[in-house]
Each structure stands twice: as structure tokens, then as C-alpha cells.
Amino acid sequence: MDTVLAIPARRARGGAVRAALAAAALLACAGGARAGLFDDDEARRAILDLRSRIAQLETDKKSHDAQVDQTLQQLQGSLLDLNNQNEQLRQQLAQMRGTNEQLARDLADVQRKQKDVQQGIDDRLKRVEPQQVSLDGKNFTAEPDEVQAYNDATQTLRGGQFDQAAQALSGFLRRYPASGYADSVRYWLGNAQFGMRDFKGAVQTFRAFVAAAPDHPRAPEALLAVANCQIELKDTRGARKTLDDLMKTYPKSEAASAGRDRLASLPR
Fold this sequence. Notes:
Blueprint: H1 2-128, E1 131-135, E2 138-142, H2 144-158, H3 162-175, H4 182-195, H5 199-212, H6 219-232, H7 236-249, H8 254-265
Antiparallel strand pairs: 1-2
Helix pairs in contact: 2-3, 3-4, 4-5, 4-6, 5-6, 6-7, 6-8, 7-8
């Protein structure tokens, strides 16, 4: 009988256990439902927050794009200003180049005019100031008119106008008797007289030249010219004497060498 009674008791305890298990399961299901509801709220809040962030990002992007566009417009404006400034600088540079070229031309004109003026001044000074002359190994000072007179006379002689040259050279000696040109003028005057076939006059002029300037580089030539004049005058004896003097006085000169040949050709 105890056994019989024990069976219902065990059944009762088993039902209670099952009820408790069922209740626990129910509670567990209820707790799971509450957890699911809580997760959905969090997800909704996360989605809303994400949407808000996306909206903010879009707003920020629009603002940033606007700033970028504004900055780009500013840069484009600055670039345009720089291009305009660059073009202005190019124009100014071109103007400066043109101005510099004009200044260079003006400077060249001024320098040319200055040079002409200076040349004119120098020419005028040459007409009035004494000049340094170097002639036949001799250095001296001569007046401008004196220099011109000598040059004109010798140029006439070179042109073969012996009469005019002789007049000009004689006039020079009368006008400038103490000139540094005097010795050379006598030599050329003797040549002009020889060209005129005024052999007596040439002999006198050449001898006067040698007497006044025995160390002149043309003195040997003058003695040879005297001998030639004497030969033309048929004064063979005088020519021999002159050639002997030439060879004794200037033995190493070219005129002395020519005089030997000339002497050998003279008749005895």
C-alpha cells in the first residue's frame, strides 16, 4: 500500500516539476521576447543616428563643395588677374624695349654729333696750334700753315709740275727761313730745278743743301745729283771731283756705289 501511495506522490511531484519547467520555459520565452524588443529599439536608434550622420555628411559635403567651388572661382579669378598682369607686363616690357631702342638711337646720334663737333674742334686747333713733325730722321715743331705749304709744294713736285714746284719751294724758304723743313725743301728745290733743266741753279741749291746739312740722310744723293748736273753741263772734270768727294765723304752710301759706276763711265 505504501507503494501504491508512493506512485501518486511521485506523479504529483513530476507534474510540479513539469509545471515548473513549463513556467521556466514561459519565463524564458518572455525574457527572450523582451530582449528582442530591446534589440529592435537599439537598431532603430542606430539607424536614425546613421541617417543623421549621413545627412550631416551630405550637408557638410554640400558646404565643402560650395567652399571648393568658391575657392576654385577665387583661384580662377586670381589666375585671370595674373594673366592680365602678365599681359600688362609684356606690354610695358615691349614699350620699354621700344624706349630703350629709341634711347640707343638717340645716344648714337648724340655720340656721332659729339664726335663731329670734337673733330671740328680738332681740325680748327690743328689750323692754329703747332704740330709735331718727323721728317728724314728729324723731329721739330711747325705751324699748321707751314705744314700745309710744305705738303702742297712737294705734292706739286710729285705731279711733275716742276716750274710751279720750284716757285712754291723757293717761296717757302723765303717765308720760313728757319723752318725745320728748310733742309728738305732745299733738296726738293734742287730736284725741281733739275727737272726744269736748270742745271746751274740745281748745282747751287744742292751744294747749299749739303753745306747746311752734311749729316742729312739725303746728302749723298745731293752730291750725286750735283755730279749729274755737271755732266749735263759738260763739266766732266767737275763731275769727277764731285764723285770723288762723294765716295770719300759717304763711302758706305748707295749714292757712293752709284757714283763709282758713274765715274767709270765718264770719258778720260
